[in-house]
């Protein structure tokens, strides 16, 4: 039954219910979409009956201030000795499950443990938002209906298969379970790891870990390859070569004086140099698998912290924090984004978050002004602009 419903969802046209407007009318339209996508009519009616908007969801969607933290602040707030110890204990106690994840999907246990730790503290904090209501609230909202309306249809199909009780709770954005996956990913790539005939990411460690591994494999994770390695760079390094836009073979980086802090660099792979807080902070070599992690979370700071924590779980030493230049406060960061936009750069929203677009623009302007082009916004750059 699951395969047939998944096939129907994949071949049916995407939902196109009008966003905004009367919520009751919206529910009727989405119910009709669910039936057209293969959910039995009685199950669809039961799924949408009594659904409500949740204003807390919209409030959370509009205020994601955590991603304004610097890499050092964010990583030090998430990574503790206790969390590291727990991750290593889980790696041992659930060795059979992680061995299956590595054998079947090629995904390292360090990565899976890092996301499990950050997303739900190993399943202890999975979120208290009613998932059905959260998804419908976001699907009705006009900011990202194209993302969330298909998630509603997937949740309805999971409900029809018995994998989605209506009292399911999770994160405000509709992610479910120990590793926080959206319904469409669960429907298409969920794994029944414990063999009970259900895919329950909230209660089954095997289901959650193996589903997370299969999801990363789907997004392009390459088996038996690293994802991140801390490195040191010479003082004379050309900082304009740093950033995800520049990829070179590891042999080229070594020729430029890039040296690993822990073990050898992986030969034959392309990689980029990451400076999360500029040339005076930690430096990392990011391999192709690092980029796959952005399909799990699109925040540079979050992804880099998770990737780094995964290396720590697998034995890497703590990073060399260095002494980065102070970060700009929120007002100055917004002012910098406004000036970069005025100069023709695409930095996205003026939100004070140092995203990929802002980093690229900062590096370009640093190079133009003769400043060290390391992509880290400083007061000196703001003054120069």
Automatic annotation (TrEMBL):
Pfam families in the record: PG_binding_1 (PF01471), SLT_2 (PF13406)
InterPro entries, A to Z: Lysozyme-like_dom_sf, MltB-like, MltB_2, Peptidoglycan-bd-like, PGBD-like_sf, PGBDSf, SLT_2
Keyword terms of this UniProt record: Signal
Location of the Transglycosylase SLT domain: 23-310
Domain Peptidoglycan binding-like span(s) in chain numbering: 332-385
Leader sequence segment: 1-16
Name of this protein: Lytic murein transglycosylase
